[in-house]
Amino acid sequence: MDIKRLVYFCTIVEQGQISRAARALNITQPPLSQRLKELEDELGVQLILREGHTWQVTESGRVLYERARMVLDNLTEIPAEVKNSADGFSGRVHIGISTTCLSKYLAVVPSLARRFPKLQSRLYVSDSTSLERHIKSRDLDFAVLFLPTREDVFTLNLLPPDHFAVVFPPGFVPDPVPPAIRLEDLRDLPLVLTRRWEGGGTFEYLMRSFQKRGITPRILMDSPDIRVMLNCLEAGLPGVAVVPSSEIPERMRQAFTIRPLDLPGMAVQPALIHLKDRYLTSAARAVIAAILQDPSISPGDADQL
Q1: Res 232 pLDDT > 90
Q2: Which CATH superfamily is domain 162-268 in?
Q3: Cβ-contact 142, 95 below 8 angstroms
Q4: What is residue 118's predicted lDDT score, i.e. its pLDDT?
Q5: pLDDT of residue 214
Q6: What is the CA radius of gyration of the chain?
Q7: The predicted structure's pLDDT at residue 133
Q8: Which end of the chain is more exposed for a tag (fewer CB within 10 A), N or C?
């Protein structure tokens, strides 16, 4: 089977249209259509159903795409793997980090730099929904994000769960300050909350919890980016933040009053995910192993990834 035909076929599927694929490959459309026909003739199946200007990938085409993508990914990683075998880790790892999980990666950055000085990393920081999408499109080797993800295409490595805390700027500190904050304590305060762009999560759970107590919260701001939220508080935004405790930087712990949120069930589950069928380079596996080095983390180690 010709590798170039596989590249052409995968590009057609990923671009969603033969004409766009031709432009992406910098060739004209007729030879690209001919290569597709040759591939279908070789396999004896129809890969794409074409009716006028519309088309869709058949089940056979979907299977071929998934297998071909694995082969092509492996081929592109061969030079880096060969080089690594000679001079240590010197490839590039594409890492996705949720804005709500930055602390998980920052904790290992110094040790990674010392252990693998030649290793390059491309870091993509976004919300969990976007990261899942980029994992599935194979732009990223792996990502660290908050569950839930209901996709069975991912391998999940669970990190320790995280609980929420309430951040009070000067001027909003209750008197006296309770050891833990109940939802009733937040009744009349302007709130700054984390929220996914898409899908469910802790925001919806918090809203339902307020509703059960007959409380209509005052929401000043919501965002999937905790960094922006906390920076706004530091810049003088008149609000009280409810965020995962691990993501509150030390400088804020010195300047703000912080208390745990007393709400059973209001916790988040960080996880490191990657595609089950994605080939992971030795460099990617080393970075994953560093992030999963906490003995409380389950399951396993990098050899099981």
Answers
A1: yes
A2: Periplasmic binding protein-like II (3.40.190.10)
A3: yes
A4: 80
A5: 95
A6: 24
A7: 87
A8: N
Fold of 3-67: Arc Repressor Mutant, subunit A (1.10.10)
252: its two tokens: 């804020």
Decide if domain 88-159+269-304 falls under CATH 3.40.50.1100. no
pLDDT tens digits along 83-93: 554 455 557 88
More confident residue, 279 or 270: 270
Cα separation, 109 vs 291, whole angstroms: 9
pLDDT at 30 over 50: yes
User: In angstroms, how far is CA 171 from the centroid of its own chain?
Assistant: 36
Instruction: Tell me the three state secondary structure of residue 66.
Output: helix
d(CA 37, CA 50): 12
Collapsed DSSP state (helix, strand, coil) of residue 206: helix
Of the candidates 61, 5, 10, 64, the residue with the CA atom closest to the CA atom of residue 34:
5
Give the bridge partners for 102, in sequence order.
none
285, amino acid identity: R
Q: Show the DSSP H helices in the chain as ranges.
A: 3-15, 18-25, 29-43, 59-87, 102-106, 109-115, 128-136, 202-212, 226-234, 250-255, 282-291
Q: pLDDT-derived band of residue 79, with 50, 70 and 90 as boundaries? A: low
What's the rounded Cα separation, in Å, for the pair 104 and 160?
A: 10
CA 109 to chain centre: 18
d(C-alpha 147, C-alpha 155), whole Å = 12
For 123-133, what is each residue's pLDDT tens digit? 999 888 889 88
Q: Which residues pair with 194 in a beta bridge?
A: 223
Q: Which residues pair with 146 in a beta bridge?
A: 270
